[in-house]
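=== RUN LOG ===
request id: a7f3
mode: sequence -> structure
chains: 1
length: 86
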Amino acid sequence: MKILHILRNPDDETALKVALEQSEKHEVSLLFIHDGVYSLRKEMNYPLRVFFCRDDLQARGLNIDKSLDYDQIVDLIFSHDRVICW
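=== RESULT ===
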């Protein structure tokens, strides 16, 4: 099963814990939006696929290669069996 976690809070330890636990049995991806994009500044060694909302990065003066525009985010959502928003 493919599970996508959408995180808006860069300090949400529970969301990351759940995602990491699920990754033991499922294919898990993380999408950081809103202030969640500040997770970019933290040490990120997640064994998961990680993406960031391009517009939210730009609004905060940040940049990264793994950023997605809104059309790509919609595609990402529909490519997963479950989506969990935090």
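=== NOTES ===
The chain has a mean pLDDT of 91.
The chain is about 30% helix and 25% strand.
=== END ===
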